[in-house]
Amino acid sequence: MPTLEQKKIPEGVTDEQAVLLTDALATGYYGVKMANVKAGDTVTVIGQGPVGLMAAEAAYAAGAAKVFTIEPNVVRRSKSKSFGAVPLDPDVAVRSIYEDTKGIGVDAVIDAVGKENTIKQALKLTRMGGRISILGIIQKETTIPLFYAQMKSITIHGGIAGVSNLWTDLLPLIQYGKIKAENVFTHHFSLSDGAEAYRLFEAQADGVMKIMMTP
User: Fold this and answer.
1) What is the model's pLDDT at position 3?
2) 13-175: CATH, from 3.40.630.30, 3.40.630.10, 3.40.50.720, 3.20.20.140
3) Number of other residues whose CB lies within 10 A of the CB of residue 147
């Protein structure tokens, strides 16, 4: 059983980063790992909520040469610019990425949404022999066109992150500044103002994405 000392937040990790290690960062990194992102790869991340944003930053930490992010919400879309990603509106994403990759497509796509239209978009964007990792929860009625995946020899991985199993990988990346995990928390509240925090999040008002609540 871990001692109290082992349960403390390690040096070089902020409270916000520690919270993200239990959720969005670990899940986003899991998508990168399951998509086998390697040095020099081109990567697309679909969806720029907390998980998608963390997947995009983690892809760079894994050595990706270029990361495209796709998100309809303009505020969320712009956040990945802070660490060098190329944000794109879904309506122009396929054309823009194919132009940038000279018609080849990207090495890996991480779908942080998991809807039928985003999975189909992922299949379009992935090059021959590429990889797709699906992080968004796929609904039962979702149809995945596996014929196209087979014709392009695409490897598809869908799964749920084993969060604590990824900390050994992630802690050094945070402590050495490879992953900063900034711009994810849009609002901060005390626990005493929890009702207002939940109201704001439910209303999706004021550009809220993730809320940090402290005692």
Assistant:
1) 46
2) 3.40.50.720
3) 9
